[in-house]
Structures are given as C-alpha cells and as structure tokens.
Specification:
This protein is an alpha+beta fold and about 130 residues long. Helix content is about 45%, strand content about 20%. The chain is built from four helices and four strands, in the order βααββαβα. Helix 1 runs antiparallel to helix 2. The chain starts with a strand and ends with a helix. It comes from Bacillus paranthracis.
Length: about 130
Amino acid sequence: MYNVAIRRPNSDDLEELHLFFRIVITNTYKDEGLSQLLDDIENEINMKKQYLKTDFDSNGEKRYFLLAIDTNNDKIIGTIEVGPASTLINSCTGGVLKDLYEIGTVFILPEYQKKGYREFTTKCNISYVT
C-alpha cells in the first residue's frame, strides 16, 4: 500500500516544487533523448512555475494543483495539474468542451516512477475534485 497523502500546495512548498519541476522535466527530456534541448527544458520548467503561480493567484480557480506527499519522509513525490481545456482540445471538438477542465500533467519523481504512483495520483485527483 502507498504511504501517500494528497493535498493542495501552499507557499511553503514553492522552493521544493520548483526543484521538483526541474528534476522531473530534465529527467523526462533525458529519457526521451532530448537533453540537448536546453531552451525547451527551461521553457517547460518556467511554464509549470507560471501555472503554479496562477493556481496560487486564483486560489485554484484558473489552475489547480494537487501534491502527492510520501508520508514516510514528507517529500513531494508527485504533482497533478488541472486547467482549462487546451487550444488543441477546443479546436478538435469545435469548442464543445471549452468549458471543461483537463488533467494537464502528472509528474512523478524518477525514483518513484514505474511503481503505480501515477495511476494512484490520477485516481486520487478525480475523487478529490469531484
């Protein structure tokens, strides 16, 4: 069984979350053989930081993050971000889904990947939000 708590982020989490985004995004690019795309990596990290800021600034109205915390060590091991339906979804559906939200990204620390945490956090997000 997982020793994981799901909760909303707070301002005390910012530094750890910024490092978390850097670790996960850099590792993902490396695993995909794209580690040379340094500008893309930085843009992705900065976009996630901006989404997190939007969550804080709007109190979760415009973007919404949940954190997965390993309760054994109080460490952020995962995030899930929910936001407005993307431009791609809107264009592909003729705007039918424009008022709905989508799960944007699910990030899990590399050392916790392939252990079922992504599926766990996704299920928790669905039940947490509904």
